[in-house]
Amino acid sequence: MAASLSTVASARECGVRYLSMEDGPSPEQIARYRAMTPEERLQQAYALYWTARRLRAASERALHPDWSEEQIEAHVRRIFLRAST
User: Fold this and answer.
1) Of 62, 66, 64, 59, which Cα lies nearest the Cα of 80?
2) What number of CA atoms fall less than 13 Å from residue 75's CA on the CB side?
3) CA distance 37 to 10
4) Over the chain, what is the mean pLDDT?
5) Cα(70)–Cα(76) distance, integer angstroms
6) Which structural domain range is residue 27 located in?
7) Cβ atoms 30, 36 nearer than 8 A
8) How would you write the chain as a 3-class SS string?
9) In total, how many domains does the chain have?
10) Of 8, 31, 50, 62, which has the maximum CB count within 10 A?
């Protein structure tokens, strides 16, 4: 869900900066990623995956307040099963 223009404007007034896909990682982040062991990279990927699922479930709950938790979980599962890169 995209932020509204008023939300973005309010955030900027408070010093919050939204990152775009064009920003990319900082040199410090790149150095940290390169220093990670394969196990650390896998742990990061695992955490990111489950964070994305929790965020999607929260979004679906907001979009479908009448759905049961089982319906939300099944819907999110279908979305992630069909996802591709």
Assistant:
1) 59
2) 15
3) 40
4) 86
5) 10
6) 5-82
7) no
8) CCCCHHHHHHHHHCCCCCCCCCCCCCHHHHHHHHHCCHHHHHHHHHHHHHHHHHHHHHHHHHHCCCCCHHHHHHHHHHHHHHCCC
9) 1
10) 8
